[in-house]
Design a protein that fits this description.
499 residues; Immunoglobulin-like; 6-stranded mixed beta sheet; 5-stranded antiparallel beta sheet; 18% helix
Length: 499
């Protein structure tokens, strides 16, 4: 823009600035983070880091948070483009006044400063629906506390460009240039839950932010919390982002294991922090679904580093911007069929856990080793399910099962067992039993072995010995791998034997 030398325009730009907040209390919240310093809100280097985020970075940020701005455009530019252009001094984000020139060569402020201000002023990052009022006063620029905004600067583009210019102008005037207010080293006082306290503007960035919004806890605390905690615009030493993950058994996130099967799981992260990762220090750790650290063992762990450390880096080191790989195994050791969720995240052991951005999970399904499904059953006396025996009569009952598990059945191990109607194991004798294997084992396999997918047959006899009370004798059965496990309820079948 051209040099600003209109006195009325100057007053509007430099003084007529207000705050439309997020509803924080006037006093500091009890949970205020210990590192919040009212005198030093953000470093000068971070504040003026105009190249910290690209247009694509800002667009992803808006999309990820469901912001209406992700689909907003004005004057042929997307909101992301307008924000990054303003950070680089484009349009009304350039201009000179009082001997201070803000240009495309100097740029203005970190794009994250603009984003945090948009949220602080009008909640535009979390706002998912169009709001003309919020867009007209997007940065709170020329909207004094007393109410009313200057229509000259209404609209998203004007707000972003002029707001970014103002923040950089405030920064430049905070040291030297013969100004009497908002200078580095000057004192100011504020009220919090401990009463009235005084501090100083310890750097240019703090002076700039207080001149833009002259409040601590109804303004600049909000800015600081958004920039550092909510949106994490600065890169911590240890941070990572999931690039890809895979498994050697089934779907990349939902592997399926047969009994005795081992699967190799691999996950790759990009180092988006500032520290280099070292093998043996940066490890994959187990967490719960909320990224709380998990110390208990995982049922399918196989040769892990430790109970709650599946793997360390494959690479010897991973510099910022590079990718690192973690590979480990899980094994179905014959435990019950179920789904076992495994949540993981990165940890620099002895240093710190990484942020939640490294959270990933697998849901590992284990198939039952022993499972079966009734194919058919029969009797030599009457209806296949309802045989009737006269006194002294014997009937042969037969039932066939499909092996739907993962283990082969062996004669003498896989047997037919008696149960109750609810598939509870039954230990008492059956009144019509005839030459069974034991009191509660009618038969073993006819075949020597039955592989998965094949069918096995169990044949046995019942006899009406005479003298039993007339009536119906229900016989419930199911399969059991003796010495190993009972089969699931899918193997439940019954006869009602009339005597």
């Amino acid at each position: 823009m051209s040099t600003v030398d209109d006195a009325r325009r100057s007053i509007q730009r430099l003084v007529g600035l207000g705050f439309l907040g997020l509803g924080f209390s006037l006093f500091a919240p009890v949970v205020q983070a210990a590192e919040f310093n009212p005198s030093n809100l953000i470093s000068d280097g971070e504040f003026t880091s105009v190249n910290a985020l690209s247009v694509d970075d800002v667009q992803r940020f808006l999309v990820d948070r469901g912001s209406y701005l992700a689909g907003f455009s004005e004057g042929g530019r997307s909101a992301a483009q307008i924000i990054v252009d303003a950070a680089h001094g484009v349009g009304e984000a350039s201009g000179s006044i009082n001997g201070i020139a803000i240009t495309e060569a100097t740029g203005t402020v970190h794009p994250g400063v603009i984003l945090a201000t948009l949220q602080k002023e009008q909640s535009l990052i979390t706002r998912s629906e169009y709001s003309e009022g919020a867009l007209r006063a997007a940065m709170g620029y020329a909207c004094p506390d007393g109410g009313g905004c200057n229509a000259t600067y209404a609209g998203f583009t004007k707000q972003v460009e002029n707001g970014a210019w103002q923040l950089r102008y405030n920064y430049e005037r905070a040291s030297g240039h013969d100004f009497a207010d908002y200078q580095v080293g000057q004192s100011f006082c504020f009220s919090d839950h401990n009463g009235t306290n005084c501090g100083s503007y310890d750097n240019r960035a703090a002076a700039s932010l207080y001149r833009y919004t002259p409040h601590v806890y109804n303004g600049n605390y909000n800015f600081w919390n958004l920039f550092y905690n909510t949106y994490r615009f600065t890169s911590p030493a240890f941070d990572g982002q999931v690039v890809s993950w895979s498994t050697s058994a089934g779907d990349f996130r939902y592997p399926t294991l047969a009994s005795g099967q081992t699967a190799t799981l691999t996950i790759t992260y990009r180092n988006i922090g500032t520290a280099t990762w070292r093998r043996g220090t940066v490890n994959l750790g187990t967490v719960d679904e909320n990224f709380g650290f998990r110390f208990g063992s995982y049922a399918l762990a196989s040769n892990w580093l430790s109970t709650n450390r599946p793997a360390t880096l494959t690479e010897a080191s991973v510099a910022p911007g590079e990718t690192g790989t973690f590979t480990f195994q899980v094994r179905h050791g014959g435990i019950h069929a179920d789904t076992y969720r495994l949540d993981v995240g990165l940890v620099a052991d002895g240093v710190t856990w990484f942020p939640r951005t490294t959270h990933a999970f697998w849901e590992v399904r284990t198939l039952p080793a022993y499972d079966g499904q009734v194919v058919s059953w029969s009797t030599s006396a009457g209806d296949f399910r309802y045989p009737t025996l006269s006194s002294g009569q014997t009937s042969t009952l037969s039932i066939r099962y499909l092996n739907t598990g993962t283990a082969s059945w062996a004669r003498g191990t896989v047997n037919l067992g008696t149960v109750d109607e609810n598939f509870g194991f039954r230990f008492g004798s059956y009144a019509l039993a005839s030459n069974w294997l034991s009191t509660n084992r009618p038969a073993t396999l006819t075949e020597a072995s039955v592989a998965p997918g094949e069918t096995g047959t169990f044949t046995f006899q019942v006899t009406n010995p005479g003298g039993v009370t007339g009536g119906t004798y229900r016989l419930d059965v199911g399969l059991v791998a003796d010495g190993i496990t009972w089969f699931p309820r899918t193997t439940h079948a019954y006869w009602d034997v009339g005597a």
